[in-house]
Write a structure and sequence with these properties.
The complex is a heterodimer.
Chain A: H1 7-27, H2 42-61, H3 75-109, H4 117-138
Helix pairs in contact in A: 1-2, 3-4
Chain B: H1 2-14, H2 17-35, H3 41-48, H4 57-82, H5 91-102, H6 106-140, H7 144-161, H8 166-181, E1 183-184, E2 191-192, H9 206-224, H10 243-265, H11 271-285, H12 298-313, H13 315-321, H14 327-338, H15 346-350, H16 352-384, H17 388-407, H18 410-428, H19 433-456, H20 463-466, H21 468-485, H22 487-500
Antiparallel strand pairs in B: 1-2
Helix pairs in contact in B: 1-16, 2-4, 2-16, 3-4, 3-9, 4-5, 4-6, 4-12, 4-14, 4-16, 5-6, 5-12, 6-10, 6-12, 6-13, 6-16, 7-8, 7-19, 7-21, 8-19, 9-17, 9-18, 9-19, 10-11, 10-12, 11-12, 14-19, 17-18
Classes of the chains: A mainly alpha, B mainly alpha.
Chain lengths: 150, 501
Amino acid sequence: MAVVRSPKDFVAGLMFIVVGIAAIVIASNYTLGTAARMGPGYFPRILGILMITLGAILALRSFKLKGEPLPGWRWKPVLVVLGSVVIFGAIVNWAGLVLSTVLLIVMSSAASHEFRPKEAVISGILLAILAVGVFVIGLKLQIGIWPGGH
Amino acid sequence: MDLLNHLALGFSVALAGVNLLYAFIGVVLGTLIGVLPGIGPVATIAMLLPTTYALQPVSALIMLAGIYYGAQYGGSTTAILINMPGESSSVVTCLDGHKLALKGQAGAALTIAALGSFFAGTVATILVASVAIPLSELALKFGPAEYFSLMVLGLIGAVVLAHGSLLKAIAMIILGLLLGIVGTDVNSGVPRFAFGIPELTDGIGVVTVAMGLFGFAEIIGNLEVTQAREMVSAKIKGFWLTKEQFRKAWPAVLRGTGLGSILGVLPGGGAMLSSFASYTLEKKIAKDPSEFGNGAIQGVAGPESANNAGAQTSFIPLLTLGIPENAVMALMVGAMTIHNIQPGPQVMTSNPSLFWGLIASMWVGNLMLVVLNLPLIGMWIKLLQVPYRMLYPAILLFCSIGVYSINNTNMDIYLTVLFGLIGVVFVKLECEPAPLLLGFVLGPMMEENLRRALLLSRGDPFVFFTRPLSLAMLVMAALLVLVIVLPNVRRTRKEAFQEEA
């Protein structure tokens, strides 16, 4: 029975195949045109075919070549870091730069195994002052400082 | 002397007050991130790119360039003093640099690293200035077919010299090219891969991709490792080299500069490859190879000169041909596009003060680095004591504000997060993100040139093989792939990289 000997390559191969198929399916809505007069769908389809081919070689080769197992996945840093940035993006418009900065700093600090709440709050406040100084006053970016866009 | 006139123009721009200030900010920031492990030049340049909107284009480019070569200086400081490479291009400097520090010769190692870098920077600046004109003239003769083939060669070359699986790297290029298509097609006005999201019809920003794949993914990767950093700080006694050390070091500086200048120009080259290659070379030709790893001064002088030379000459393909050859240069393309400058051979003629100003600023920046760094080493070491748990939230903040400010839209923040997640998956699957970024930047140019070439040839694909220059470049690309795929070569390549790591 065939056994996957290089899981990293196998999964990467599958990923490329899926992307390639998706590209071709979506690009089928765009005009293909001819080689001399390419439509918007021509180049994406070429790339989709290349993507699938490379993905397939990679996946098939993983039955033969030996590789390392898939590494473990620690969810906490991924979720906390990315989650706090998403929340920053969601609230910065109405909460203003100061509050959203403090929230981002405190939340994202929690991803570290040596999280110290008090220190995080202080650094959040200092960075909020710095951010307002640099980005709003210095670089004149259009971001409100306080809730309500003031 | 044309060259002298050009350089005079360049220095008049680079020495203007504002530009001097931005060069200074760039090299200081570069040194800072070079000193700090866990954040590299790609993420930093991505982070700061949005803040350069308000600047003059030339000031913006001078600052961003300063970050890249400044990082080469900073990286060596921590490598020597605490055995921790602040930058991947300083990994080999740890080997002998830190051994010297343990012997009480940290000052000598730092001095030769700084002087070697400065010498390399000076040579590289002259080299960039002198090959710029002939290369640009050559590039102006290129038709769409030649450009397309050049990009193929550039992309293939970039992955052949990179480490890791060649197949995966090529797949990552294609993925990058696909991502580059997202947005409105210039020829037909059809929005492609936009999924009905209005923000996507303008395409994805290079900052978004780079910040997610490099910045966010790096932070998450660092947080997954729970071990604490240990610091064994060495005392600095004096900055002078002994006569014996000087006699050994200067030929290594010359060789490192030469090697770095050449490797910097090649696709995929740049600072990191240059320093690895130089260390290997120095070890091979040394009279007493056993010195290496025990504090050989050549092991610091060579690689440190090479990485700075490589960092600077990697601007050559970008400035003359408009082709970025590593991830940092891909971001420089982004920076130029933001300021409405189409990178390519025409920049020199249409915007000479920007072109020569940028080149001259590299030398000025190098001079600042030498003058500033040695006296400021104590301060950099203090900065290292800022723990990572306080550093990364600040990086996240500046990334978030930066990416938001590009278009004042939250969508860009969400996209960056998405690329951060994708970046984590890439790390797990050992897929290098740098080729993707190159493909992403070159994608639209590649499609455009492919279209034009085939339009001119009435759809005949052999146009790429019948035009001699185009054929030559494709043959070179094919040879590069063959060289790697041939099994015995692959074996030695593997060994070479293991030795380096």
